[in-house]
Amino acid sequence: MLDLLNDLIWSKLLIVMLIGLGLLFTIRSGFVQFRYFGNMFTIFGHAFERQPGQLSSFQALMLSVAGRVGAGNIAGVSVAIMLGGPGAIFWMWVVALVGMATSYFECSLAQLYKRREPDGTYRGGPAFYIQHGLGQRWLGIVVSILLLMTFGFGFNAVQSFTVASSLHDTFGVPTVASGIALTLVIAGIIFGGIRRIAKWADVLVPVMAFSYLAMALFVIGSNFSAIPETFGLIFRSAFGLEQAFAGGIGAAILMGVKRGLFSNEAGLGSAPNVAAVAEVKHPVAQGIVQSLSVFIDTIILCSCTALIILLSGVYEPGMDQAGVVLTQTAVAAVVGEWGRVFVSVALLLFVFTTLIYNYYLGENALGFFTEKRMPVVIYRILVVILVLWGSVQDLGTVFAFADVTMGLLAIANLIAVALLFKVGLRLMRDYDRQIRAGIEQPVLDPKDFADLDLDPAVWKANMPATPDATERR
């Protein structure tokens, strides 16, 4: 049943929607993800600014990267190569580059339509821009349910499976023991809230990412002369020109799109939930910053994993090995057995922050359609159960379950973003106009968007105080 649903969703719908809409957003926006690529780093000059109790733009970015960087970068890339050949990596790059535009628009819209909570914090995401932008609360509820199932249940099962497999391969730890340990840790911290998650992510994400990147660069540097041939293999395989993968172009595209979306989440509707809680002067600023996280995740980190596997010499077409185990074996083949331990520890840290991030997204989605305490308690119990369940399942089951829920969520979110695309363009042009006028930090004036269902408390609070008549004189 899972296989039939996956075939329908991915082979018939999502490949066209992800790449097609990504290209549409890219072209109609004047290649916004490339036009503002340099500005991403300029924006960081203001990314740490925030009011007490709010998340800064940088914290929201780190929280988003914390959620994206995990099993998808280490195990997902391995699965893509094993099932789709090296050419799957090329299609992961394509999904990421056009997905940067998709992520930009969905995160900008999430900022635009976010709401201020009674405690002063912000909430937003696909459900909010669907309700307040399209006026379809029922669809917002459907998206919230899919988000809860995908991240709270499906992705958490994948993460726990990956780390349990890794620890079993490296240290011989029984998978059920790893699952129990993970459930105890998650149960102990899921009551901390978004600020505590952001505090952990601020420290752990940069350390994790740079440590893994350093290891990858060492492995790549050790096989520097083989890099041109490896890239040639990726490109030939992507179009079925490599003899070992002739006729496999369909599998390469399918696995590249699947694992690319699983890793960078562009268009999936997850990052907007985090982007919305940041405090910024203009929604587009956060959209630009969030598109950078797609680049970091796929173009940099996923490429590193792919090169580690392909340069190590351990990969053979048709091999059957658990995703994370292939990555560990590849690192160990270059640097020795301590590399296997390094990957396990890095993955454990990646999964730790990702599990918390996934939990937060699920609870945030739940809060859209109910404020009662009991559903939250039940949700937390189910999260703990699914983490334990995922640790003792097989690779095919956990990925198939996650692919179905992820695919349905992506379809619903992409339709909403497409319907709100004109609003996104209008928002982008407002930002562009201010940049051309020499304004270093554009500010959203809510009066320019008075026809939209915005929360006045959000943007009034971010606007500079208006000088009174005396000051003007």
UniProtKB/TrEMBL annotation:
One term under GO cellular component: plasma membrane
Keyword Cell inner membrane appears in the UniProt entry: yes
Keywords: Cell inner membrane, Cell membrane, Membrane, Symport, Transmembrane, Transmembrane helix, Transport
Pfam families referenced in this protein's UniProt entry, alphabetically: Na_Ala_symp
GO molecular function: amino acid:sodium symporter activity
Family annotation (InterPro entries): Na/Ala_symport
The organism's place on the tree of life at top rank: Bacteria
Annotated membrane topology: Multi-pass membrane protein
Places the protein is found: Cell inner membrane; Cell membrane
Residues spanning the membrane: 12-31, 60-83, 89-107, 138-159, 171-191, 203-227, 233-254, 294-315, 341-362, 374-392, 398-421
The keyword DNA-binding is annotated on this UniProt entry: no
PANTHER family for the chain: AGSS FAMILY TRANSPORTER, SODIUM-ALANINE, AMINO-ACID CARRIER PROTEIN ALST
Family: Belongs to the alanine or glycine:cation symporter (AGCS) (TC 2.A.25) family.
Name of the featured protein: Sodium:alanine symporter
